[in-house]
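pasting for the record
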Amino acid sequence: MANERLRDAMLRNGLVPATIAESLGVDPKTVERWITQDRIPYPKHRHAIAALVKESATYLWPNAVSGERAAEVSKSEVVQIYPRRGAVPADLWQRLLDQATGQIGLLAYAGLFLPEQNPRWVETLRLKAAGGAKVEILLGDPASSHVAQRGADEGIGGAMASKVHNVLAFYKELRGEDNAAIYFHDTTLYNSIYRFDDEMLVNTHLYGTPAAYAPVLHLRRLPGGEIFDNYVASFNRVLSHAQAVWPED
């Protein structure tokens, strides 16, 4: 049985077996067997290939790590747990953004606190996009029932929709950057997700409690771990149904 995930990832990145083989210092026939016979490479080769095709090793070879081992590794993906968002060090948000070079994803209803509290936030996002990083910002559709319900749950009524319009005004400086996009989503969010390459802050949501007072997980992706990739998958599912605000196409 062929490894179609690996084959597809290579095609999307313009890679052929000979290229992979040269990069890893192995025989091209070995790479062919990894694809056509779904042979599982050694861990060092799995990690190297995953980096080349910009996918996680667990996605390319889901059966390479036992469930018990994956559970142990996943524990180590949790860098820190904060009892509330306000306990997250203020400089951590900017540091994670400064270090990101490839993938920046923000999923929230509004996340207004970021540009409000950090005057460098929007400009740094613009510079990251100009430098080639993909910036994807998913905001709650202010006209959606889910945003209205979240506002009602927090006791702030229509103020939640107003927050979305306010944060959109901050992000207008990103408009025109090829690698930056804003989307509206119509989703019940169980967490707000802030991704910076292979690190992430996950702000959990508690019923009737503003996100600022809910716990935050600081995660760092590890080969063989599952927690980080599960949140990435959640982000991507919301993105797949989101409506682009701009660029409109």
